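Example record for the data management plan.
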Amino acid sequence: MSEQPDDGTEFRELYPGRGAADLTVLYEPTVDPRRDRHVRVNMVASADGGTAVGGTSGSLGGAADHVIFATIRSFADVIVVGASTMRDEQYGPARLDEHHRQARLERGQTPVPAIAVVTRRAELDWQAPFFAEAEVAPLIVTVGAAPHPPADVAGVVVAGTDGGVDFGVALDELVRRGYRNVLVEGGPTINGQFAALGAVDELCLTDSPLLLVGSSHRIFAGADLATPARLALVSVVTAESFLFVRYARAEPALAA
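Corresponding structural encoding:
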């Protein structure tokens, strides 16, 4: 029987099947057994490719988007987000409903995923609810020269010295700590850094039924890839005029 959320939102699977969508099945990560990690990027964009309204992505979403967002988060061991996105989007601690929490416990995960904030300066408010109310202590991914939070507030992943964060080192360290299912929520520059590493195994894209025009960023930002990364379509779901598209890495070769 297909699982639908109990808030009345109806999700329809358009691909690979057709009919009521079982979100838990459609969004379960497919981990390559040759790899020690699975990196999934989740983003929302308008129909014309914009990623923000008034500087944030919140207005692009809706009730259906929130359901998909929670479903994707429910599989993650850790959520990676840039400090600017954390501030702009007013991130709070990770929250999941009882259904998702129980499923995580049965899989051997913590009740909610940890959130790792990427920041070179680490100039954050350690008393903010994001830290003070977190059920699972956040992580700060930063450089060695940056100030560190109090040990009882957040863990620290040092990835670099006094320059920018080394994303390869950061990813390796997260995996070493047991965070195999890595969910990246941006922003575009953070996404671009993971893409440059060849580390993006999957892209979950919400296509919002809005036209923005303007000069909003793309979902990935950075230098052109030497070779475009080819993706394979995994699933397409629709609800409330949104399209929820899941792509996976198509190349058989492993990332460096």
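Summary line stored alongside the record: The chain has one domain: 12-249.
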